[in-house]
């Protein structure tokens, strides 16, 4: 699949998912197990993405590098209720500093 | 059905102000998406296509995250689509309050995201819910796309993005999106399980698949455990 095909397919599926919400009868999701599973899905996906983005390296392999310091700084910023963009800037800045100082790759 | 009383002027201003604030705040981090997307190897127009057509921050970050990790296009599509399922649930919730048909329904679907649903659903009066949804959806759409373009142009100029910690920023973006959802023990348990399974799968599976595998495992375990717990209380 070319990158353009993947981009457009993802866009089409995203729109179809959004529109489906308006077209299916509300009773369709009445099953409690289904509703619960769908409610937990974003949490599971986002947590998995945090783990992979923090520790995965090409290979594929696991590494400890400056990203860990950046993510730890992001946790502190989130605990201090910093806005989204501040959290991101703090994470990038700390990782960049750790690399510039030569403490980690 | 559409004969709800009009919104009082002061309420109209309050809802519009809320929509604008959310639009600007959300739109701002379109900069980070734009920069990460070009760093992942997407070109300017692919990046803009995601913001204009896919238009769902979490799915967009997920798509470029999988591509950046060297994952296949199909894995990027699958991760983005799974993360977008919640928008379908929002549509289910907003269909009644909005009462839209035809072209307006097609437009409402595209604007159905976390922010527009959140601002819309909390308004006490029906006309407030409609105004909150549309105003927030349009404000986020405009700011998000504008700032994505800025981010994509800046990201292109940065060169080696690791030097600026952009890879750590990607991880932090998912963490910040996850953070408000971690209320209560169950989301925490699912999150920790999913992160652990994903990390353990990294050396064993092609890029992109650890995330999907971990999400499916964590949701299945969470659902089965909850089912057992409610079965015990029922009997």
Percent helix range of chain B: over 70%
- The helix/strand series of chain B, from N terminus to C terminus, equals HHHHHHHHHHH
From the alpha-carbon coordinates, what is the Rg of chain A to the nearest angstrom? Answer: 19 Å
State the helix count of chain A: 4
User: What's the shape of chain B?
Assistant: globular
What class, by secondary structure content of chain B?
mainly alpha
SS-derived structural category of chain A? mainly alpha
Query: Radius of gyration of chain B over alpha carbons?
Result: 20 Å
| Low-confidence segments of chain A | none
Major β-sheet strand ordering of chain A: 1-2
Largest sheet of chain A: 2 strands, antiparallel
Distance between the termini of chain B: 43 Å
Written overview of the protein:
The complex is a heterodimer of chains A (105) and B (235). Chain A has helices at residues 3-23, 32-55, 66-79, 84-100; strands spanning 56-57, 61-62. Chain A has 105 residues and is mostly helical. Chain A has a domain at 64-105. Chain B contains eleven helices and no strands. Chain B starts with 8 loop residues before the first helix and ends with a helix. Chain B is mainly α and 235 residues long. The longest helix of chain B has 33 residues, at 126-158. In chain B, helix 2 (30-40) runs parallel beside helix 4 and helix 7 (114-121) runs antiparallel to helix 8 (126-158). Chains A and B meet through helix 1, helix 2, strand 2, helix 3 and helix 4 of A and helix 1, helix 3, helix 4, helix 5 and helix 6 of B.
What's the short story on this structure?
The complex is a heterodimer of chains A (105) and B (235). With 105 residues, chain A is mainly alpha-helical. Helix content of chain A is 72%, strand content 4%.
């Amino acid at each position: 699949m070319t990158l353009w095909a993947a981009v457009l397919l993802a866009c089409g599926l995203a729109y179809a998912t959004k529109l489906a919400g308006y077209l299916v009868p509300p009773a369709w999701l009445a099953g409690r197990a289904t509703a619960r599973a769908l409610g937990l899905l974003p949490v599971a996906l986002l947590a998995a993405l945090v783990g992979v983005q923090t520790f995965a390296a090409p290979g594929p392999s696991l590494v400890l590098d400056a990203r860990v310091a950046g993510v730890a700084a992001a946790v502190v910023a989130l605990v201090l209720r910093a806005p989204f963009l501040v959290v991101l800037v703090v994470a990038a800045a700390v990782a960049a500093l750790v690399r510039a100082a030569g403490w980690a790759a | 059905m559409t004969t709800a009383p009009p919104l009082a002027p002061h309420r109209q201003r309050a809802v519009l102000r809320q929509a604008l604030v959310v639009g600007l705040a959300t739109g701002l981090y379109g900069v980070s998406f734009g920069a990460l997307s070009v760093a992942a190897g997407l070109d300017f127009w692919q990046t803009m296509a995601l913001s204009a057509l896919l238009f769902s921050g979490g799915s967009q970050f997920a798509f470029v995250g999988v591509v950046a990790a060297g994952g296949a296009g199909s894995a990027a599509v699958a991760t983005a689509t799974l993360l977008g399922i919640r928008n379908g649930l929002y549509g289910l919730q907003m269909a009644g309050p909005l009462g839209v048909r035809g072209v307006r329904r097609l437009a409402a679907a595209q604007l159905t995201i976390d922010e527009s649903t959140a601002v819309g659903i909390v308004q006490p009066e029906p006309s407030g819910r409609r105004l909150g949804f549309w105003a927030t959806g349009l404000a986020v759409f405009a700011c998000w796309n504008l700032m994505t373009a800025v981010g994509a142009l800046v990201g292109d100029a940065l060169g080696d993005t690791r030097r600026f910690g952009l890879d750590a920023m990607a991880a932090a973006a998912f963490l910040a999106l996850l953070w408000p959802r971690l209320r209560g023990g169950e989301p925490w348990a699912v999150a920790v399980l999913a992160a652990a399974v994903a990390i353990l799968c990294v050396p064993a599976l092609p890029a992109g698949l650890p995330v999907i595998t971990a999400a499916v495992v964590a949701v299945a375990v969470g659902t089965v455990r909850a089912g057992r717990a409610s079965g015990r209380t029922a009997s």
